[in-house]
Design goal:
Elements (H helix, E strand, L loop, with lengths): L2 H7 L1 H6 L4 H20 L19 H5 L12 H4 L14 H5 L9 E6 L5 E4 H7 L3 E8 L4 E11 H8 L7 E6 L7 H4 L10 E5 H5 L4 E6 L2 E2 L9 E3 L12 E7 L6 H5 L23 E4 L9 E3 L7 H4 L13
Parallel strand pairs: 1-10, 4-11
Antiparallel strand pairs: 1-2, 3-4, 4-7, 5-6, 5-10, 7-8, 7-9, 11-12
This protein binds ligand MTE and molybdenum atom (MO).
The site of molybdenum atom has 7 residues, from loops.
Length: 327
């Protein structure tokens, strides 16, 4: 066993004795909410229709052509894919890697609708054949103050949206994750208090921003299920929870969509969720982060940057907004 993987294997155990704020929050609420949630459990999510199958993705040209270089060490693959948040599969950081393989991702279809001229569906095959894939190395910063540096593979969300032609009334984008109870043990849990499916949203200009990536791979491979296979959003200047996984529905809307974390705790998790070291979370500072792999003995603390270091590209979208108010 290499030094890295030994350190890594011990990580989840060490971490569960620390604070993991999002799940701590969920678990605290569980005590109050279990009865109500048990009563509110709904029927199984829709099953997915039949279409084409996608196999043998080849990302070599995407990787060869990357215009984005790290300037920082990449987080080891093992760290990025064994320390995850994907509450559909449980609240422990190790649950997604352990249980997400139960999710069927092939075939997969994505419904695109709302305020668009050409509503329709995309199959994974259309996505991989129809868009030029690129590798982008981005910092990723969870609101819980851990972070990583990952080489993603994907294409700008703007390219996808353009095909469906948002109308002039379109102001926001809403995303939904697959909700399939039979394959997602976390959604069947009595203590699950998220109103499934997991939902996220962006303002239209944020969605159209060239840094906003629809992602199908990482480290030159297809996304493993725990990372949000087969298609997830990566918005590198926002906190991790905006980066919704395993997307099955995208709608253009004229109102700011409801998002899962706002629904749970609006005073703690805002719609914008731009990384901001100066605006503390109500229960902890956001000034520093633990860069994975991180442990008690080697916490690997680094300073958090405004907009996660992407301010030059994105700050203009928030001119005149009080970012303590629009957190
Ligand atoms: N569907 C879904 N998407 C999700 C989540 C989730 O629980 N369900 N967790 C979010 C949170 S809180 C974070 S920090 C990131 C984690 O991404 P990673 O596991 O690839 O690091 O996914 C986000 N996307
Ligand atoms: Mo997160």
């Amino acid at each position: 066993m290499s030094r890295i993987s030994r350190t890594w294997r011990s990580y989840p155990r060490i971490d569960s004795s620390e604070i993991t704020p999002e799940s701590v929050w969920l678990n605290r609420r569980n005590l109050m909410k279990t009865a109500a949630v048990a009563a509110g459990i709904t029927a199984a999510g829709e099953t997915v229709a039949q279409p084409k199958v996608l196999k043998d993705l080849n990302f070599s040209s995407a990787v060869a052509n990357t215009p984005f270089k790290a300037g920082e060490d990449l987080t080891p693959y093992e760290a990025a894919t064994t320390y995850n948040n994907f509450y559909e599969f449980g609240t422990d950081k190790s649950d997604p890697a352990r249980y997400a393989d139960a999710m069927t991702t092939d075939p997969w279809e994505i419904k695109v609708g709302g305020l668009v001229n050409k509503p329709g569906k995309l199959y994974l095959e259309d996505i991989v054949n129809g868009f030029d894939l690129e590798e982008r190395i981005y910092r990723f910063r969870c609101v819980e103050a851990w972070s990583m540096v990952v080489p993603w593979i994907g294409f700008p969300l703007s390219k996808l949206l353009e095909r469906f032609e948002p109308t002039s009334e379109g102001k926001f984008i809403e995303f939904k994750t697959l909700y399939r109870r039979s394959e997602m043990r976390g959604t069947r849990s009595f203590t699950s208090i998220i109103d499934w499916p997991y939902r996220e949203g962006l303002r239209l200009d944020e969605a159209m921003h060239p840094l906003t990536l629809m992602t199908v791979g990482l480290y030159g491979k297809t996304l493993p299920n725990q990372s949000g296979a087969p298609l997830r959003l990566i918005v590198p200047w926002k906190y991790g929870f905006k980066n919704i996984k395993s997307i099955v529905e995208i709608n253009v809307t004229d109102r700011q969509p409801k998002t899962s974390w706002q629904d749970l705790a609006p005073q703690e998790y805002g719609f914008y969720a731009n990384v901001n070291p100066e605006v503390s979370h109500p229960r902890w500072s956001q000034a520093y982060e633990r860069r994975l792999p991180s442990s008690l003995f080697n916490p690997n603390r680094v300073k958090t940057q405004m907009f996660n270091g992407y301010g030059e590209q994105v700050a203009g979208m928030y001119k005149g907004m009080d970012l303590a108010n629009y957190y």
